[in-house]
C-alpha cells in the first residue's frame, strides 16, 4: 500500500488504524514534517486510496504520528516537534500538540471537523502522540506533559462535537515516565503505557465504563531486565501484548499478559535480530498472529517478527520475519566508461562527470542489510597500483582500481571479533597501513592493517586478518591522521577505554604496528549537546597558512556539533584551544576540510537541513587567516535540499558527498564564492530528498584522476570529472 503523492522522507506507515474496510495511514514527515494521513478502502481485494487528510499545520507538527478511526470519524495526532534537535545545548523549540478530527462520508470523502488541544496545553507536551477511539470515546496521550511525566486525556462526542471529559490519572509518576506514550482499548478496559516510569516502565489499566479511578498496574516480570516496558501495546488473540524495546541493552523484548487477570503469560526475546534491534518498539495483534516491530534492526532499516501460537497451550513462537525488500538489485558496470550525455549516464543524473565503473554491495562482501559508509584510498609506493578502501557496516573491502574500468575486489577485513555491526566505520592511512574505527560498535578499538598484503593476493577475494590492534579506545566515530607527524586521533569516542570526553584521543602511530597512547584533548567550549569537548570529525595539519604565529605547528580544525574549534596540539602533553566559533542555525557540525593554502575551512552541518534551520544544502566557508579569530566569511547554498556529509579539497575543487544529492564538485578558486561545476547522483530516484541514503563519502586524491565514491545502499562508484572546455 502506497500513496499516490508519497515522497522520500514522508514516514508513511508511522501509525496505522484499521476499521472494517477502511485503513488510515499516517505520514508525519510529509510536507516539511507538517504531516498528513491517507485513507484507503478495500475494493475487490485491493486497498484503494480514497482521501488525503492534510490539516495544513505548521512545519514540524507531525500530523499522522498517531491515527485512529471510530465510525465516521478519523483522527490525526500532531504531537509537534517532529525532527527537532537540540541546538547549542538547549532543548529543542517546544510547541504543544493537537489532534485533528475528520468526518468521513460513505464515499470515503473526508472533511476536517475539529482541532482538539490539551485541556492543559504546554510546550512539548506531545499531545496526540498516541490515540485510541471507539464509538463516541477518544483517548489522547500526551507523554511530554509535566516535564515528561505524561498525561492521558478523555474526550467524548456530544451533538457531533468532541469535548474534554476528564483525564486518566496515574499517581506517583517519575520524571521521564512518558505516561500516554502508548494506548490500546480492550472492550471497556483502557491500557496506557508509561515506558519510562522508574527507569523500567509500567502499564496502567483503567475501566472506561466508570468514572476514572485508580488503575490496576502491569509491571515487568519479577527478575526481568525489562526496560521501556509499555512503549507499545496491542490486544489480540485473548492477550495483551506489551513491548519493552530497551530490554537487554536495547535488543528488546515483548511480553504477553492476560488482559483480565493481568498475569504474565509469556515473554519473547529479540533472538531473530540481536543487539540494538529495539524489538517491541511497535506491535500489532490479531486472533492468530502477532507482529512485533524491531525499529532499529538491520542497521535502522527496521524489521518485524511474526509470532504464531505453536501448540494447544498457546505458546507463541516466531514463525518468520519481515524485512525491507527495497534494497536495489544492482549489477556491476565495467568494461568501458559510460559518458555523461544530455544530463545522464545510464540512469544516473550527472553534469560533466563520467561513470568509469560500479561495483554493487552484493559483490563487495556485504551482508543482506549491510551498508557502505566511509571510503579512503592507497597507492602502493612500489607498484603504483591504486586501491580503494571501502568501509561497510560489517567490515572493510579492498578494491584494486589500477584498471578503473575493471575494478577487482581483492578481499575483506571483517570488523573486530566481538564488535557490533553498526552504521559507522572510518578509515585513514599512514605508512602503508590502514587504521580503522567504528562507532557504537562495542569493543571494536582501532584495527591496523598492513596494506602491502594487497600485493600478493593470488585468488581474490580473500579474507584478511588485522595486522595489529589498538584497544585504548572502544568505539570511535572517526579517526583523524596527520601523516606529516605520525599521530592519529580517534574522535567521538565512547563505550569504553579512554574516550577523552569525545575529543581527541591522541595516538602515536610512527611505529604503525605498535601504537601508543599520547594524551587527550577536549575543549570544553565546543561539543554542544553531546558534551564539552566532543569532536565529531577533524583535520589536523602541520600549519602552513597566513597566521605566522603558528606556522610549522600541528593545528587541528574540529567539527564539533555547535561550533568550529581550532587547537594547537604540537605539545601532546599540553594541547591548547585557540578558538571556538558558533554560527547561525547550528545543529550538528559534521566535517570539513581546509583549502590547500590553509586560508579557508569548508564546514558542513549534517542536520541543519533536516533540522529546519536552513532550506537548502548549506556549506559554511570560514576565513581562518587568524587562527584565534575565525570568521564566517559566507554561506554557500546549493540548489538541492539534500543532507551534506563529507567533503574534501583537491586543488581548485571541493568534492562534496551530499547524500541523496550525490557527488557535487565546486570550483573554489574564489573560496568565498563557490560555484558548482559538476555532479553525479548515485541514487536516481530520490529527488534530492532531505533524508539519509546516497553518497556517504568520496576520495578524490588518486593520481589517475578517478574519484572513488561510496553510496549507502548501492556500493562503490568510480567516477571521473571531465576537464573544463577551453574557449579560445
Commentary on this structure:
The protein has a domain at 222-327. Helices cover 3% and strands 45% of the residues. It has 5 helices and 57 strands. The strands form 14 sheets. The chain has a 6-stranded antiparallel β-sheet, with no helix packed on it. The chain is globular and about 80 Å long.
Secondary-structure blueprint:
Blueprint: E1 16-19, E2 22-27, H1 30-33, E3 36-43, E4 46-53, E5 66-70, E6 73-78, E7 98-104, E8 110-116, E9 130-134, E10 137-141, H2 145-148, E11 152-158, E12 161-168, E13 182-186, E14 189-194, E15 202-207, E16 216-218, E17 232-236, E18 239-244, H3 247-250, E19 253-257, E20 264-269, E21 279-285, E22 290-294, H4 297-300, E23 303-309, E24 316-323, E25 344-345, E26 348-351, E27 353-360, E28 372-379, E29 386-392, E30 395-400, E31 408-414, E32 425-430, E33 433-438, E34 446-450, E35 462-463, E36 468-470, E37 473-475, E38 478-482, E39 487-491, E40 494-497, E41 504-508, E42 516-521, E43 537-542, E44 554-559, E45 563-568, E46 576-582, E47 589-594, E48 600-605, H5 608-611, E49 618-623, E50 631-637, E51 646-650, E52 653-657, E53 663-667, E54 675-680, E55 695-699, E56 706-711, E57 715-721
Parallel strand pairs: 31-35
Antiparallel strand pairs: 1-2, 2-3, 3-4, 5-6, 6-7, 7-8, 9-10, 10-11, 11-12, 13-14, 14-15, 15-16, 17-18, 18-19, 19-20, 21-22, 22-23, 23-24, 25-26, 26-54, 27-57, 28-29, 29-30, 30-31, 32-33, 33-34, 34-36, 37-40, 38-39, 39-41, 41-42, 43-44, 44-45, 45-46, 47-48, 48-49, 49-50, 51-52, 52-53, 53-54, ...
Amino acid at each position: 500500500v502506497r500513496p499516490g503523492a508519497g515522497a522520500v522522507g514522508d514516514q508513511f506507515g508511522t501509525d496505522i488504524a484499521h476499521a472494517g474496510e477502511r485503513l488510515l495511514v499516517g505520514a508525519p514527515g510529509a510536507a516539511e514534517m507538517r504531516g498528513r494521513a491517507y485513507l484507503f478502502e478495500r475494493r475487490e481485494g485491493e486497498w484503494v486510496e480514497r482521501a488525503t487528510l492534510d490539516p495544513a499545520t505548521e512545519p514540524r507538527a507531525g500530523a499522522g504520528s498517531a491515527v485512529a478511526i471510530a465510525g465516521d470519524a478519523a483522527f490525526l495526532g500532531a504531537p509537534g516537534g517532529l525532527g527537532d534537535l537540540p541546538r547549542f545545548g538547549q532543548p529543542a523549540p517546544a510547541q504543544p500538540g493537537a489532534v485533528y478530527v475528520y468526518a468521513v462520508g460513505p464515499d470515503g470523502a473526508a472533511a476536517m471537523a475539529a482541532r482538539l488541544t490539551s485541556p492543559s496545553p504546554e510546550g512539548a507536551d506531545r499531545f496526540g502522540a498516541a490515540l485510541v477511539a471507539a464509538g463516541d470515546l477518544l483517548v489522547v496521550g500526551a507523554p511530554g506533559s509535566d516535564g515528561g511525566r505524561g498525561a492521558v486525556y478523555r474526550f467524548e462526542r456530544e451533538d457531533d462535537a468532541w469535548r474534554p471529559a476528564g483525564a486518566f490519572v496515574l499517581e506517583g509518576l517519575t520524571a521521564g515516565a512518558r505516561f500516554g506514550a502508548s494506548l490500546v482499548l480492550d472492550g471497556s478496559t483502557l491500557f496506557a503505557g508509561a515506558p519510562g516510569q522508574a527507569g523500567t516502565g509500567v502499564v496502567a489499566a483503567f475501566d472506561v465504563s466508570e468514572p476514572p479511578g485508580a488503575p490496576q498496574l502491569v509491571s515487568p516480570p519479577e527478575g526481568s531486565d525489562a526496560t521501556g516496558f509499555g512503549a507499545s501495546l496491542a490486544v489480540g488473540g485473548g492477550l495483551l501484548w506489551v513491548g519493552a524495546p530497551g530490554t537487554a541493552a536495547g535488543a528488546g523484548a515483548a511480553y504477553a499478559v492476560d488482559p483480565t487477570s493481568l498475569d504474565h503469560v509469556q515473554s519473547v526475546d529479540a533472538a531473530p535480530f540481536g543487539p540494538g534491534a529495539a524489538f517491541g518498539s511497535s506491535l500489532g495483534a490479531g486472533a492468530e498472529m502477532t507482529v512485533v516491530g524491531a525499529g532499529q534492526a538491520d542497521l535502522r532499516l527496521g524489521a518485524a517478527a511474526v509470532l504464531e501460537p505453536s501448540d494447544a497451550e498457546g505458546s507463541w513462537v516466531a514463525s518468520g520475519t519481515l524485512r525491507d525488500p527495497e534494497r536495489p538489485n544492482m549489477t556491476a558496470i565495467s568494461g568501458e566508461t559510460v559518458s555523461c550525455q544530455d544530463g545522464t549516464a545510464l540512469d544516473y543524473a550527472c553534469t560533466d562527470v563520467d561513470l568509469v565503473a560500479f561495483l554493487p554491495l552484493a559483490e563487495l562482501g556485504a551482508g543482506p542489510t549491510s551498508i557502505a559508509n566511509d571510503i579512503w584510498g592507497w597507492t602502493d609506493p612500489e607498484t603504483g597500483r591504486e586501491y580503494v578502501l571501502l568501509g561497510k557496516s560489517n567490515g572493510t573491502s579492498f578494491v584494486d582500481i589500477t584498471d578503473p574500468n575493471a575494478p577487482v575486489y581483492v578481499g575483506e577485513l571483517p570488523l573486530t571479533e566481538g564488535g557490533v555491526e553498526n552504521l559507522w566505520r572510518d578509515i585513514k592511512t599512514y605508512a602503508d597501513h590502514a587504521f580503522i574505527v567504528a562507532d557504537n560498535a562495542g569493543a571494536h578499538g582501532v584495527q591496523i592493517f598492513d596494506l602491502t598484503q594487497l600485493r600478493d593476493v593470488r585468488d581474490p577475494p580473500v579474507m584478511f586478518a588485522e595486522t595489529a590492534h589498538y584497544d585504548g579506545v572502544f568505539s570511535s566515530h572517526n579517526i583523524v591522521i596527520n601523516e606529516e607527524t605520525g599521530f592519529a586521533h580517534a574522535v567521538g569516542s565512547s563505550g569504553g577505554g579512554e574516550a577523552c570526553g569525545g575529543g581527541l584521543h591522541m595516538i602515536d602511530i610512527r611505529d604503525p604496528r605498535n601504537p601508543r597512547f599520547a594524551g587527550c584533548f577536549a575543549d570544553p567550549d565546543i561539543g554542544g549537546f553531546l558534551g564539552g569537548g566532543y569532536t565529531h570529525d577533524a583535520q589536523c595539519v602541520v600549519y602552513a597558512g597566513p597566521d605566522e604565529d603558528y606556522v610549522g605547528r600541528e593545528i587541528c580544525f574540529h567539527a564539533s556539533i555547535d561550533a568550529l574549534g581550532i587547537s594547537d596540539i604540537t605539545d601532546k602533553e599540553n594541547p591548547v584551544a585557540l578558538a571556538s566559533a558558533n554560527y547561525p542555525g547550528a545543529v550538528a557540525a559534521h566535517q570539513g576540510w581546509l583549502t590547500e593554502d590553509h586560508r579557508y575551512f569548508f564546514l558542513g552541518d549534517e542536520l541543519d537541513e533536516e533540522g529546519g534551520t536552513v532550506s537548502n544544502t548549506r556549506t559554511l566557508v570560514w576565513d581562518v587567516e587568524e587562527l584565534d579569530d575565525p570568521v564566517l566569511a559566507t554561506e554557500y547554498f546549493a540548489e538541492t535540499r539534500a543532507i551534506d556529509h563529507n567533503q574534501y579539497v583537491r586543488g581548485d575543487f571541493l568534492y562534496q558527498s551530499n547524500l541523496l544529492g550525490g557527488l557535487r564538485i565546486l570550483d573554489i578558486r574564489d573560496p568565498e564564492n563557490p560555484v558548482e561545476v559538476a555532479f553525479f547522483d548515485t541514487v536516481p530516484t530520490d529527488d534530492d530528498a532531505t533524508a539519509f541514503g546516497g553518497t556517504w563519502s568520496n576520495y578524490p586524491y588518486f593520481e589517475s584522476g578517478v574519484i572513488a565514491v561510496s553510496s549507502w545502499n548501492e556500493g562503490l562508484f568510480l567516477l571521473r570529472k571531465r576537464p573544463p572546455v577551453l574557449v579560445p
